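User: Show me an example of a complex going from sequences to structure tokens.

Assistant: Sure. Here are the input components:
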Amino acid sequence: MGIGVLLVEDNDLNRDMLSRRLTRAGYVVRTATDGEEALAKVRELRPDVVLLDLSLPVKDGWATCEEIRADARISATAIIALTAHAMSDDRKRALAAGCNDYAPKPVDFPELLEKIEKITAVGRPR
Amino acid sequence: MSLKRRLTLSLLAILVIFSLNVGTHFWGSFARTESMIAYRTSVSAQQLSATIGQQLEEQRIQIRVLATLRETTEDTLSAEDHEQAKTNLESTAAKISALGEISQDINQPQYRALREAGDKLLAVWRNFYLRYNDPGYQPPLDTSNEPVFYEETMQRLETLRAAQGFIAEQRAAIIDRTINLTDRITLASFLASILLTSILGFFLVRYTSESLNRLKTGTQRIGSGDLSYRIDDIEDSGELGDLAKAFNEMSEKLRKAILEVSTARENADLANQAKSSFLANVSHELRTPLTAIIGYSEMLYDELGDDGRINRGQFQQDLQKIILSGKQLLGLINDILDISKIETGKMTVLMEDFEALPILQQVCQTIQPMLEKQNNKLTLKPMGELPTFHNDATKFRQLFLNLLSNASKFTQSGNIEVSAKPRGRVVAFTVSDNGIGMSRKQQKKVFEAFVQADDSTSRNYGGTGLGLAICKEYCQLMGGSITVKSSLGVGTTFYIKLPSRGPAQGSSRAAG
């Protein structure tokens, strides 16, 4: 079974494009469009990695990340911030909220794949 | 009281006391001198009286001896003896005259009595010597009035001497009293001047140092940064009061200047913050369509490289998405350019004739996909007869496009309505929705460039915060106005008033 990726993205085009490309790259991709939905799916699906947009309706990405980290059952989930917030402070803010890594938009796809590989290799001792 | 007046008053008081002292001294000195002269004259007159009395006594004894000799012998007087006797008599007469000269006016009656008696006595005696050598001369001493005259003269001389002695005693007493009095006055004014100087000095120092202390406290307080501190209740209406007033004015000016500086700094900080957050928002908004453009392009490129067959329908749809994102990006860039054109005063108005309704219908068509996505219903209410506009049609179109996409963005499964009513030469439009609405605070800022209702708005709804700022500027450029009424959770209505005949063509700078 492939690596499970939860893609959290509110922009329809980008969600569609990324999920298709990730599927093409061999990942098992599930999607969510806002923070609440993302939290529910993390609890339900236990993905190997969450690709988390930060500007989200209902509950934003920073708060979602903090809640994942606060919930003992899912706190070990790997999270990569995937965001158009690309000013110098935004990386720090993302990491401070609890993200393991940070990838600014527009996405450098090969680099994103590398990041997913690296983070899931650490998280998978087998 | 001013410091100058206090000092002047003190100096005057000291001067008055000093002149009192000097005056007393001169008056005492004058009084003493006058009494002293009178005293001395009286003493001299007394002495002279005594001398005269002695001389008279001696001459009488001599005359008595000579008379006795004349009765018993026939001896005559030599010319020398004669001359001697005559000189003695003249000397006595001269002394009596001198006594008259030095006698006080008050003693003149006594003196005249003495002189009368003395003259008679001396005339008898002069006659005695004149006729002494006459043959058969019988000295008339016991038979004539001579003893009476003598007694009278001596008695009156004594009276005069006693009177002069009395005067001398009186004068001496006066001198003593004068000395006593001047001594007392001098001592009293000396003590008074010491007392007065001390009191004046005490109050001068106390008041002055109190005022100076207040000034010092004020200086320290203001120096330590308490610029609202004022020096109150300085009783001094003079230099120190003026100083306190000038001091208070200075600190007031200082306070105002610092306030102005800090306000200016705050405004600059706010403007800076707004620009930074604008820049961050612009960056965010540009990256979102770019992500789609680059992502889809790379994906399609990869698919083309695959050996498998290409799904042409899917391929076309994906290319459509790239085109859509590209157009969205262009619109965004245009908005940014517009706002910076408006800001630099380079936006122009282009006048042309147009009808409002077809343009509004066209805008509704354009906005349709967005309405569908948010499940909103848009109604164009019946508008009746609208005048033909002579204004900037492009800006008119952009204005309603912005307002409607804005309304749709902040409304979910709701109703959006557009209405228009002609009012003379102005047409009143409304664009209303029953979306999330805005608080009073948000409504105040909603037309400012770079500002959205708040940070979470841009996070939740996207956008650069330029749409409504552009709307407001466009309305003004077209000679109209835009206002907003809204309540949280109920909805928002924008009121737009546009003149059918717009302003003369010009730049946004002229429109203000």
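The lines above are the inputs; the final block is the predicted structure for all two components together. Chain B touches chain A at residues 279-280, 283-285, 287-288, 290-296, 298-299, 302, 321, 324-325, 456, 458-462 (CB under 8 Å).
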